[in-house]
Amino acid sequence: MGSKVKLTGRVIFRGDPGYEVARKNWDPHTDRFPKVFVFAKKAQDVANAIRWARVNNVPIRARSGRHALETNLSQVNGGIVIDVSELKSIKLNKKSSTVVVGTGNRVGRIVDTLARQGYMAPFGDSPSVGIGGITPGGGIGPLQRTTGLICDNLLALEMVDAKGRIIKASKKSNSDLLWASRGGGGGNFGVYTKYKFKVRRAPARATVFRITWPWAQFEEVVKAWQRWAPFTSTKLGSELSVGPKKGGNVSMLGVYLGSKKEALRLLEPITSVGTTTTKVIRNLPYLEATKFLLAPDPVLPQKFSNQFSSGFGRRPFPDKAFKPMREFLEKSEGGTPAGFYFLNWGGAVSRVAPRATAFYWRKAQYYVEWNSSWVKPSHAARNIALARNTRKKLQPYIVGSYINVPDQGIKCSGPVYYGKNFPRLRRVKAKYDPQNVFNNPQSIPPA
Fold first, then answer.
1. 229 — phi, psi (to 5°)?
2. CB 3.0–4.6 Å: which of 147, 159, 365, 387 could bond 307 by disulfide?
3. Residues 227, 228, 231, 235: is their CA dihedral positive or negative?
């Protein structure tokens, strides 16, 4: 069998021209050197790559948008990276209100393509994230209180399993794999090649907003936001970001699927807090509204590395929780994309039962994430420790963690990412990948 298995697609071995470009990830400090990259043109290329890896006993990583927040989750020394970024088809079926997309599409491209045809797709906070990776991990964002998580809209999928077989999953066949792929994280069961989503008609217009406050008012604003955001209209989604003390501010970005007049009324409880420094509230055609919300990733003067961590808040932070938050923001460096980020929960997200999909953390009021950044490799250890110690100190006030924002400092991470769904995910893993071919430092072990 060995000699018969050939790599197909666009194949780049270490030492070939294009290798360094293939190795570049969103996080610049990629210190992994894979043996080979395969850029698949079709599902069969993925199947051939998996078979080749098995015969040659080489570890496998799947990659979609190169946005893995922990770089060793999408690359591996001496291994094969199966990159699906060239699987870019988008087929909208207006009759059935569904779209079938290749897993190499970036979120922004799908949102844009659908919006131009009058349809709305849920999305996160960055247009450059790959749909291949964000979907199985959940997929959170400002529209989720209306549309649900990205994974809640997943109806069917095509995946290549550990034996190199192309399999399909839907409610009717391999439904356990569909269940696991709705929140069970990427890189666990196989390499996904196609997703089918349900889509909705987009409103003609939407109201978007960006409001900022001085950094010194962050406690007051966060407290007010946590008491308001989870309970306001489910047609309103908002993200609250708090930057580092040095050079940072407090900013809220979001969308209301309705009129500007109504948006102003709904926003009043938060805009009346503190002294806002900028207030942009615009009613725009839906396509323009998506552009406002999905601004291109900032081009920073230097390339930063990041350490992220995350959790879910079941009630507003008590006063005690602000001490570690303040310490973190005072130690984070200015001019870097570090800080705290909150997203309001509820609505369509919480209407799904925690065990109905693999995504367990349904009953929260908000999501919280923080990240520290650095430029010099010598600052890495300090910043990683800062993010992880902050997690320890915030532990009494949060539950769980979001698999799409992995933190390799979390020990026994299964129940932290997947709650009570972890045992069932292990059983699904045992069925589709009994030999644990698809593994990484925090992947799901087979039961």
1. -55, -45
2. 387
3. negative
Cβ-Cβ contacts under 8 Å for 103 (sequence gap 6 or more): 64, 84, 87, 130, 131, 132, 135, 192, 193, 194, 195
Q: How far is CA 287 from the centre of its chain?
A: 22
Amino acid at 150: I
Annotate 378-404 with DSSP letters as a single string: GGHHHHHHHHHHHHHHHGGG-B---TT
Q: Beta strand 249-256 with 166-170: parallel, antiparallel or unpaired? A: unpaired
Parallel, antiparallel or unpaired: strands 278-285 and 249-256: unpaired
Query: Cα separation of 220 and 163, whole Å?
Result: 55
Q: How far apart are CA 361 and CA 206, in angstroms?
A: 28
| Tokens, residue 168 | 């399909």
Tokens standing for residue 175: 């439904």
The DSSP string of 283-335 is EEEHHHHHHHHSPPPP--SS--EEEEEEEEESSPPPGGGHHHHHHHHHHSPTT
Amino acid identity for residue 115 in this structure: A
Tell me the residue ranges of DSSP E strands in 95-141: 98-102, 119-120
For 43-98, what is each residue's pLDDT tens digit? 999 999 999 999 999 999 888 766 565 555 667 888 999 999 999 999 999 999 99
CA distance 426 to 94: 37
Residue 358, burial from CB neighbour count under 10 angstroms (0-12, 13-18, 19+) = buried
Average pLDDT value for residue range 396-401: 98
Query: How far is it, in rounded angstroms, from Cα 273 to Cα 262?
Result: 19
Residue with tokens 């979907």, as numbered in its chain: 135
Give 237's contacts (C-beta < 8 A, 6+ positions apart): 141, 142, 143, 144, 145, 146, 254, 255, 343, 344
Distance CA 248, CA 230 (A): 25
Taking CA atoms, 428 is separated from 107, 151, 339, 423, in Å, by 27, 17, 36, 9
CB crowding 227-241: b at 16 or more within 10 Å, else e = ebbbebbbbbbbbbb
Cα distance between residue 354 and residue 399, in whole Å:
14
Share of the chain above pLDDT 70, in %: 94
Q: Render the burial of 168-194: b for 16+ CB within 10 Å, e for the rest.
A: ebeeeebeebbbbbbbbbbbbbbbbbb
Indicate the residue type of 318. Answer: P
Task: Give Cβ neighbours of residue 377 (< 8 Å, ≥ 6 apart).
Answer: 29, 305
Cα torsion angle, 63, 68, 74, 75, sign: positive
